[in-house]
Amino acid sequence: MANELILIVEDNDKNRKLARDLLQFKGYRVAEAETAEAGLALAAAQPPDLVLMDIHLPGMDGIEARKRLRADPATSAIPVVAFTASVMPQDRHQITAAGFDGFVSKPINIKEFLAAIEDKLAARGKAG
User: Fold this and answer.
1) Whole-angstrom distance, CA of residue 3 vs CA of residue 29
2) DSSP for 40-80?
3) What is the CA radius of gyration of the chain?
4) pLDDT tens-digit profile of 1-24?
5) Which of 46, 79, 115, 116 has its CA 20 to 30 A from that of 103?
6) Distances (CA, A) of 8 to 44, 82, 89, 93
7) Handedness of CA 83, 89, 94, 96 (dihedral sign)
């Protein structure tokens, strides 16, 4: 891992802080947004290496935000990992069908969370 930038789009302060602390401990740079709209603006201003996107956000939801990231040529190649407590099979199907590059469940399992991030960055050719 070589100082990759990860954008966390999460409206829950505790979840966002835990994800940020884990990622920073592992050497990642982190940008944060509480809404999809703010996350899209951050991604456009400084494209991250990966986006962790909550599905249930105030205003625009994570699925719509992911669609908008894909529609913009500047952000279309950024891996977007769903970061959600919606873990029922129908939820996973909806997330997969929406084109997310991965899935991380909440509450966070530290080992699985970090492994998912490393796997997605490695697949993009950015992990060290």
Assistant:
1) 6
2) HHHHHHS--SEEEE-SS-SSS-HHHHHHHHHHSTTTTTS-E
3) 13
4) 469 999 999 999 999 999 999 999
5) 46
6) 14, 10, 24, 22
7) positive
